[in-house]
Amino acid sequence: MPALWIAHVTVSDPEAYGRYAELAGPAIAKHGGRFIARGGRFVQLEGKKRPRNVVAQFATLEEAEACYHSPEYQEALSHARGASERELLIVETTD
């Protein structure tokens, strides 16, 4: 079943976060992910507002989780730590 990787982000260091973004995109693509939303307009209805919201789709929850734990994504993530506050989750879609 397909799964969505959903991130809500507040960037505090745009330069370091830019390095994250440069590496994260190829890492996600390598694991079969494709972006369906990446920093576009949004309306916050509940919860903590984060100005950057990203959604990537993967073929399965397991592939999305494997991407997160991959060496390529962990290298990207090393640039986001300390440069952002984030929430990230993976959720299966419904048919």
UniProtKB/TrEMBL annotation:
Pfam family, one: DUF1330
Domain of life: Bacteria
Ranges of residues in domain DUF1330: 2-93
SUPFAM superfamilies in UniProt: Dimeric alpha+beta barrel (SSF54909)
InterPro entries: Dimeric_a/b-barrel (IPR011008), DUF1330 (IPR010753)
Protein's name according to its UniProt entry: Uncharacterized conserved protein, DUF1330 family
Organism ancestry: Bacteria, Pseudomonadati, Pseudomonadota, Alphaproteobacteria, Rhodobacterales
